[in-house]
Every structure is written in C-alpha cells, then in structure tokens.
C-alpha cells in the first residue's frame, strides 16, 4: 500500500507542476488538462527513467507536498484558501533550517529522533492542531493528523517528520517569500 501512496503522491505533485506551468500561459481548464496528462504519465509510465528518477529524488513524499499541491490547485480553480502569512513562512523556514541542521548533526541536539516516539509526536500534533484552531486554518492540522495516522499504521517511514515535512519545502518557501517581496 505504501508504494501506491507514494506513486499517487508523486502523480499529484507532478500534476500540480504541470498545472502551475500550464497555468502560467493558459486558462485553468487547459492547465488542468496538462496536470491530468502529468498524472497519467506518472501512473502509466512508472518505469520510464525521468518518472522513476523523480520518485527516487523526491521519495518519501509524505503528506505535505501533495497536500500543498492540491491546495494550490484548488486555489487556481477559485476555491477560497487562507494564505500563509509572511511571518508564518519566515518562522517556519528558520525553524525548519534548524531542524535540518540538527538532523545532519550540525547542531548537537537530534530533533529528528523525536519523530520516532509516540509521546513527542502526539504533543507536536496537538500543538499543530492548537495552532490551526488559533489561526482559523484547518490545513496544517489535517496534514499533521493524516501524517500521524499514516505513521501509526506503519505506512511509509517510521518517522513522523517524514510524513509531514520535506526538504523541498525550503526552496518553495524561499521562492514564495521572494515573490512576496517583489
């Protein structure tokens, strides 16, 4: 089941990339057709080197990247989406960079290992849910809870962070911040 979820997640992310690229020059219906073509390509041509390479590069995709892709697709179709604030993005970027540094051994504390233990994971999920309640956003709590559900069921990584975070978020957040500054 994990393999199916990984391929579905890759199809969503690459479909979103097709939608974003197609949407830069066409209307949403045409961009959606491009996105569906990308989804079909991923699901039907898994053995093709570029598609398999994308999976090797991005795996494990977890919950966050596909959820962000679906959120952006919905916004492209006019669904009201509560945007992340600039301060939220800056704070996330700084915290995530510290987290990545600790996971690589640059910082003496290993924060990544907290993702293996049930009590810290439960506390982090509750904290994200409380933040979502406070901010009026359901997106992050849904990602945190879905990531926890997959983690508890043993689908995918044995570390909760692998379900809810991805290193690709760093350049994505930087690009969003740069575009907001322009």
Q: How many domains make up the coordinates? A: 2
End-to-end span in angstroms?
Answer: 43 Å
Q: Could you tell me the strand content as a percent range? A: under 5%
* Helix residue percentage: over 70%
| Biggest sheet architecture | none
Give a summary of the structure in a few sentences:
With 182 residues, the protein is mainly alpha-helical.
Account of the protein in words:
The chain crosses the membrane at residues 30-49, 56-77, 89-109, 121-151, 163-181. Keywords: Membrane, Transmembrane, Transmembrane helix. The chain is mainly alpha-helical. The chain has two domains: 1-81, no CATH class; 82-182, no CATH class. The chain is 72% helix and 0% strand. The chain has nine helices and no strands. It has helices spanning 2-23, 28-44, 49-58, 64-76, 86-103, 118-135, 139-153, 160-164, 169-181. Helix 1 (2-23) runs antiparallel to helix 2 (28-44). The longest helix is centred in the first third of the chain and has 22 residues, at 2-23. The radius of gyration is 17 Å and the shape is globular. The model has no long low-confidence stretch (mean pLDDT 88).
């Amino acid at each position: 089941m994990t393999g199916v979820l990984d391929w579905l997640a890759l199809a969503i992310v690459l479909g979103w990339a097709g939608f974003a690229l197609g949407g830069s020059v066409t209307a949403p219906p045409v961009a959606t057709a491009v996105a569906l073509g990308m989804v079909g390509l991923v699901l039907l041509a898994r053995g093709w080197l570029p598609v398999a390479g994308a999976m090797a590069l991005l795996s494990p995709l977890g919950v966050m990247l596909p959820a962000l892709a679906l959120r952006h697709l919905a916004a492209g179709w006019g669904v009201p989406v509560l945007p992340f604030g600039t301060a939220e993005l800056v704070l996330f970027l700084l915290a995530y960079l510290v987290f990545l540094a600790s996971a690589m051994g640059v910082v003496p504390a290993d924060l990544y290992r907290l993702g293996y233990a049930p009590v810290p994971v439960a506390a982090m999920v509750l904290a994200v849910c409380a933040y979502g309640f406070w901010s009026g956003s359901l997106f992050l709590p849904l990602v945190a809870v879905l990531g926890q559900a997959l983690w508890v069921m043993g689908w995918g990584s044995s570390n909760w962070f692998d379900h809810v975070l991805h290193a690709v978020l760093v350049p994505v957040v930087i690009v969003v911040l740069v575009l907001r500054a322009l």
